Amino acid sequence: MTMTGGTEQEGAPSGGAPGGGRWWWARRRSLALDASLAVVSALECAAEGVSFARGSGIPLALGVAFGLLVGATLLVRRRWPIAVVLIALAVTPAQMGLVLGVVSLYTLAASDVPRRIISALATMTAAGTLIVAFVQMHHDVVRHGSSEAAKWAAVAITVLVAVGLTAPPVLLGLYVGARRRLVETLRERADGLERELSLLAEKAGERAERARIEERTRIAREMHDVVAHRVSLMVVHASALRSVVREDPERAVGSAELLGDMGRQALNELRQMLGVLRTESGAAVSQRPVEPVVRPVAAVEADGDGPCLAQLGVLVEQSRAAGMAVSLSEEGDRRPLSRPVEQTAYRVVQEALTNVHKHAPGASTLVRVAYRAQEIAVLVENGPPDGQPSARLPSGGNGLVGMKERVSALGGGFVAGPRPSGGFRVSAVIPARL
């Protein structure tokens, strides 16, 4: 609880406190301590009230009651420390409240009261104690007729008493208050760090989950690009082989050999992909769930193992062998590009041809590659199907999505859609330099 006048925050709101406290006490032991100090102070002031009553001529019972009331104010020292110090200062001329003055000064110094108020009240208490002690000492010296040396000794003792009753509780209170504030600051800082660590852990978990999702998506895209085209051509050739095996055995033999070559190529690319789906230590990717350690196929292709634009002629010839009327056109001067650019352009053409085999069998197709100063443009467009029976190849609808993701990852643009005159067009523009 914040005490009146900016005093120390030791309690909780009235009506209850953490740890079973009451009113402005945070704990029951704090209440017990203040109650004990109040009892001791009240008894002391009551005893000193007897002397005060005799010296001032008031009834003895009134002096004792006054002392009990003054001493009991120590019970509210945490709530109103300034008021308690002022009460102790007020009863100083009556020569009562030794415990009250010392404890109230300590409580004031340990509170959050501004330092200038603490200094002012401590100075006033020291001055009041000094004056009262000096008057009492002087009265005793004069009454007993002591020497000059005794008078100076009395002055020295008076100063020591005033300083001894004021400085130690104030200094101790300042130390305890500073230490308490330091501990509170460190605790708040530790709580803040704990919250930050919790947030960082949550964000790290989210990043790891996103990384796993992205890795699975990338693996699925690579598997689709690597395998789908070869398998699609194999299915087309197998369908054609069944119809020509009796009419043209030589052509059937050529188709069978081509099927074998495509199967070996598909297995080769699949083996390369499965090889990169392992960690450097040989453990499976699934054994490292937090940090993705898969080396993507694109990285392997970047090392020189993947396809490039120089192989587009072979890709087109394979589609022609499967019965597609496809032509290849290149514009500009062919020049070596970075591996990711060449592989992405190749995969766009490959996937577009695969889609023609699936959805427009027998359609005439044009593949155009334009080498420009700052970019490379790829266009694959086909006309409507010519009525040939479909090979009934399955389609998951991921080919166009994968192409767009590949091109967008390199900062390029990708457009795909039907042509006004029929058929389909796939277009991609990729920066020549990354």
From TrEMBL:
It holds the Pfam family HisKA_3. One of its GO terms (molecular function) is kinase activity. The keyword Kinase applies. It catalyses: ATP + protein L-histidine = ADP + protein N-phospho-L-histidine. Keywords: ATP-binding, Kinase, Membrane, Nucleotide-binding, Phosphoprotein, Transferase, Transmembrane, Transmembrane helix, Two-component regulatory system. Its EC number is 2.7.13.3. This is histidine kinase.
